[in-house]
Fold this protein.
Amino acid sequence: MDAITRAWKKAVRTALPGPWRPRRVVGEAALALLMGGFAALLELAAGSGLAVPFGVGVAVLWVLRRGLPATVLLAAAAATGWSGGPVLLMICAGWTAGARIRRVWTLVGTFVLGWLLFTVTGVLKDAATTSPKLVLGLSLGGFLVLAVLPALYGRYRAQRRALLDALRERNDQLLRERVMVVHQARLRERHRIAQDMHDSLGHQLALISVHSGALEVDRTLTDRQREAVGVLRQAAVAAMRELREVVGVLHDESTALPPTPGAAAAGPARGGVDGIDALVESSRAAGAEIALSREGERRPLPAAVDHAAYRIVQEALTNAHKHAPGAPIGVALRYEPDALVVEVTNARTPELVGVRAGAGPAVSGGQGLTGLRERARLVGGMVHAGPTPEQGFRLAAVLPYEAAEGAGEGAAAAAGADDWVFEGLSPAGAAEGRRRSPALGCAVGVVAVGLTVLGLMIWGVVAFVGGARDATVSETAYERIRVGAPEAEVARELPPGSSFFSDQYKGTGPTPPEGSNCRWFLLADQSDVAWDEDHVARFCFKDGALAEKQEYVTKN
């Protein structure tokens, strides 16, 4: 019982899709009564006794047209082929079917079957009084005009509405994505600022700490001066700690988004390979023992590679000052055939160095090597860092002469945000959208239907003129034919005839001879009759000969 109930509810939901708000219920009921009343009036005007059944049926089919568009179209086509009452329903059913049947071949099959039903019911009704060929042509033309054209327009409207909804949704999505891209660009810029703060200010603070540490152990200073230098060194260490905390905050908020290739070279570089000499000299001034060497033929470097080499040496010297104060440092630049190799090494910390006495552990935010690897990756290179067998430390970077694509194009992510957002609106995408325009397919359908209807109209005019000619006998031929002539001889004098024109004259005029077989024709001379009258010629045959010929005027 539950299965039957569920099946019934599902069938009702399919046939009557919601939501059924009060306004819609009232509107559907009013339109159903209007459609049913119109069909009943047409049936009454045609003298049919099926006015009430047709009216009720049309009202019911109108309510079901949304949920069962194919079924309603087939029923309306069959009913309209039999009688003209549901003609307005068939127009609306064609519109609804075109708009709601999504699959193209299902739609085509439904309309082909609907035309067959429309034609079959018309032939069954009018085959006894009208030529089947005429019924076929009229049914094809009528079905194309009454059902197919509304379906094409309904499908165009539905596809256009769907396309506009999709474009509106895509526009909203692009706006959301644009906001996200701007947010990402802002985070990447913060990441870049954090990296530059870490590399530049961290190096300077490290030098201040090294200088103050060296002064603190200077024997020529008084206790008061040594105390002041200690305060200075502690302030430098505290400033470095606070700097690394700020850098950590900025970096952590950007870790979910990798920096763009252009971020590494954002803004003008404050140093390059030429600035490494100044870094070495400033470290030497702080009392560090540093050796700088260059190997290979020097060549020009892309801005991104030049800046990355400077920052790598700067960070390596900063780490050496912090973690191995007093240890000798070696800086080497080697110009290999395809890449620049930057190498910074330091030996282990001397055992009798008092620079860090009482200074506590070195301040490290864990950002230095990570930032260096990221800088090298963005220009297509790599960084290796690790301890040496002599208990020292070695940092080596390989930087290709040709920077990775997009690495030096300036900055930043925000500058390219608009291009990224409107990527979906490229000319290729626009051409694809034009190819998918719903108007094209519907226009082709309308043209095909129009040409078909025009062809049927031309065929109908030609057939009408030919039928009228075949059903008309001239005055000369009428006078030449004599009563008593053999039927075969009379048939040669008469035109072929057309039942479409002559069948309406059966039963008119004087009573024909008993047992005779008669044929009716229009006389060519119609000048002496009124506009609502026809001049008719009748030939009656009996026993193989012309028994009577008669001309008379009858109402058309």
